[in-house]
Amino acid sequence: MLHLKNQFIFAPIKLGYSNNKGEVTDKHLIFYRARAEHLGAVIPEPLYLDKGLRELPTQMGIDNDDKIEGLKKLNHEIKQFGTKTIAHLNHPGRMANPKIPGNYHVSASDQICENGGAKPRSMDRADMDYAISLFINAAKRAKEANFDMIELQFGHGYLAAQFLSPAVNQRSDEYGGSLDNRMKFPLEIFDAVVKATDLPIIVRISGDEMFPEGFHLEDMFTFSQELEKQGAAAIHLTAGTACSTPPWFFQHMFIKKGKTWEMAGQLQNKINIPVIFVGRINSPKDIEQINGNYNRPYIALGRALVADPEFAGKYLGKKEGRIRPCLACAEGCLGGVKSGKGLGCVVNPQVGIEHDMPNKADKTKHIAVVGGGLAGMQAALTLKERGHNVDLYEKEKLGGQFNLAWLPPKKDSLKEIVDYYKLELKSQNIKTIHKKVTPEDITGNGYQEVVLATGAEPAVPPIKGLKTYYWSEFLHDENLPEDKSVLVIGGGLIGAEISSKLVDKNNKVTIVEMLDEVARGMEMIERKFTLAKLKKHDVEMFVNHKVTEIINDHQVLIEDKAGNTKTLNKIDKIVIATGMKSVNELQYDLQGKIPVHIVGDAIKPAKAREAILTAFNAAKSI
After folding, report:
1. What is the chain's mean pLDDT, rounded?
2. Is 312 domain-assigned?
3. Do residue 371 and residue 430 come from a single domain?
4. The domain containing residue 119 runs over which residues?
5. Which member of 32, 158, 315, 420 is catalytic?
6. Is residue 361 in some structural domain?
7. Mean pLDDT in residue range 115-128
8. Residue 546 in 3-state DSSP?
9. HSE (side-chain half, CA atoms, 13 Å) at 584
10. Does residue 519 share a domain with residue 446?
11. Pairing of strands 234-238, 275-277
């Protein structure tokens, strides 16, 4: 047993909060302190073993003794609550970031990752011995830095998994071929770490790589049984590979929730050591399902704790409040880390600044918030939290245009944030007034300040002959045409999503996009899925083109950058998805009469994360 105070473990998620020396920073301390109190254990982000093996320039390291004091501080912050700490040690092999100067790439074979990357060198015995020494030294440092346990990353397509995977391991020596041979090097690493430290050792594996050529659950039964014989304390079962099946690696909203739980449950029946369950566990319902079906195992929470640091405390009844939902969108967390800005979150504007909580206002004011989309609802809640009296105006439905966000295929989880905001508004007794606001509504009702969260509207280009067109109507199932020829003008995020919906009803879709790519700005995993789907359905895409004229009801003229024209025939319907423009006329009507704060898309059309963040920051300043 792992002897934790409860079943909840914070899974190792990359933060990107370090400096270029791999040191623990104040931002790490703040982030983990905010989440540690009601957890049984915390596994901080993956620790690099060698500066030449980083996945991020801003990743934490355990590659030399200089890191020990910082890691001791981190452990102190977490362990003050009686929460244990687990050092996650990972050699990425061929998955070391090729964009980081000085990185090197080794693997079981010289197979290049199909998602891109450097060609690795097939490891010889000296390379393997060096990799083992990195694990040994890191394990010793983990002990000295006061970690309670070690977790070895043997899954997700990293070095050990590269040896385990028949798709990657093409060796003809004793480390390739049969499963017994492919297990040999990972077991050598494990055995060396066991001998180097007396800390309990957890092994993280992918139960299945989720593509035909990879390894599968039966293989991992065998591997886990061997690890148990050699002294593993627990198996942490996830799925996929960062290289071949990223949606499973990231547990994205586009893949089935619960598959990893099923695999972990099956593994429970094959071994006698604990199995840690993980994978989109982001609601009390998920926990109840796992506990009910699988005899209360250890549960690793990842992005659920990013969205709501007090998720576990609220579930356990030790903290009050409604759980803010993780949407499994990967937009703020993966997107933030990939962008170099560090971990963020679409729904939680305080990620990374947990110490800077909104203070009570010096003076209570009567404030109007105009617009009940994500930005308006966040502004209203933060203002109320700070002690202000708030009225929220919305002319239609709360949620605004984000009510369209969950209508494209496989995006149902996005609805949860609108539902959360609605319930919070109700529980905080924030008055919601459904009407279109006039300047007199603001100046004549005693408001002292106003927040304009009036959003954006479609920007319709001046195309000759354009009369009848659609925008988002086809996202609604009841409006979706079938067996029609549909021209989508604009191939950005909205245009791509509408196209994805249209092909589900056997519509022939053509996209015309002025820029050089379709689905620009879409989250990385969603973009790959969407483009593959459009290609599968033979969607014709004209990039670097514009529509110059709607000739008649069924003919459209397009033109490329060189001025060459082409006529598209037999068009039944036209969708305009050429972007958005801000709506903020009230700003000019109210200037000089009352302090005005503009938030969300009313400033500039952007994504949900920016809308919520601008609203939060504005509400903190009033």
Report:
1. 96
2. yes
3. yes
4. 8-339
5. 158
6. no
7. 94
8. strand
9. 21
10. no
11. parallel
Give the end of a domain, one of 297, 322, 339. Answer: 339
376 within 8 A of 433, measured Cβ to Cβ: no
Q: What percent of the chain has pLDDT over 70?
A: 100
CATH number of domain containing 138: 3.20.20.70
Question: And the tokens for 410?
Answer: 């496989």
- Contact criterion met (CB below 8 Å) for 232 and 275: no
- For residue 341, name the pLDDT band (cuts at 50, 70, 90): confident
Residue 166 — very low, low, confident or very high, per pLDDT cuts 50/70/90? very high
* Same domain for 269 and 380: no
CA distance 433 to 286: 35
CB 345 within 8 A of CB 351: yes
In this structure, are 108 and 27 located in the same domain?
yes
Asked if pLDDT for residue 555 goes beyond 90, the answer is yes
- Amino acid identity of residue 103, one-letter, is N
**352 phi-psi bin (left φ>0, alpha ψ -120 to 50, beta other):** left
Q: What are phi and psi of 329, to 5 degrees?
A: -90, -20
Around Cβ 19, how many Cβ atoms within 10 Å?
12
User: Domain with 438 in it: what CATH number?
Assistant: 3.40.50.720
The pLDDT value given to residue 335: 72
In the block, residue with structure tokens 């003229």: 557
Q: How many CB atoms lie within 10 A of CB 100?
A: 16
Rounded-to-5 percentages of helix, strand, coil across the chain: 35, 20, 45
Please give the tally of structural domains in the chain.
3
555 and 609 co-located in one domain:
no
| E strands present in 357-396 | 366-370, 389-393
Residues 493 and 417 in one domain: no
- Has 158 been annotated as catalytic? yes
Structure token digits, residue 427 = 């529980």
Q: Give CA–CA dist 18/127, Å, rounded.
A: 28
pLDDT at 333 over 90: no
pLDDT above 80 (res 565): yes
**For residues 238-246, average pLDDT:** 94
Cα-based distances in Å from 225 to 187, 229, 268, 577, 593: 12, 6, 11, 54, 73
Q: Does residue 355 form part of some domain?
A: no
Distance CA 396, CA 372 (A): 8
In a domain, residue 356? The reply is no
Residue 524 has pLDDT above 90, yes or no: no
Give the integer Cα–Cα distance in Å for 342 and 45. 12
Among candidates 307, 303, 186, which has minimal Cα distance to 235? 186
Q: Are residues 24 and 116 in the same domain?
A: yes
- Calculate the CA 15 to chain-centre distance: 12
CB 240 within 8 A of CB 205: no
d(CA 79, CA 236): 21
Residue where a domain terminates, one of 339, 355, 389:
339
What CATH number is attached to the domain comprising 513? 3.50.50.60
On the 0-12 / 13-18 / 19+ scale of CB atoms within 10 A, 552 is exposed
Same domain, residue pair 160 and 252? yes
pTM of the model: 0.94
